[in-house]
Amino acid sequence: MSDVTLDDEELFGEAASEIREDVETHLRNARAALPDPDDVWDVEADNTLGVLNGLRSALAVDEVEEHLRQAKKWYTIGERADAFEDADDLEAEIESIQDALDDLEAVSEQVGELASTIPELRGQLEDLQEAAADEESDETDEEAAESE
Hints:
Elements: H1 2-33, H2 37-41, H3 48-58, H4 62-80, H5 88-147
Helix pairs in contact: 1-4, 1-5, 3-5, 4-5
């Protein structure tokens, strides 16, 4: 009976190591999938809308989300099975990436709102500018008619 217990303990230890490796791998992949700081900071475009669309693309986080989800899943399994001797580093890394992901999603949402608002604002300003130009043209025509 003790051989079975020893084998079970050995298998459990091996499984715990594999779970930790899975968590670490997904965390590494999540970090690697985070946007490059230069891609977020240095955006080239011909106009404001181009800049916003470029920024929105740079902030894409789908891959980060998937890897973080997998890391959390395996971490939760390991925690519930009490498979980790010390998992504080994993928990801290998960929280750190989650915080960055939350910030990226919030900024992406704000950029998306701006990207949809800027064309409307431009249209309003163009309409106001045309109205002012028409009014000025009408005044000039009236002054010319009066001076004749």
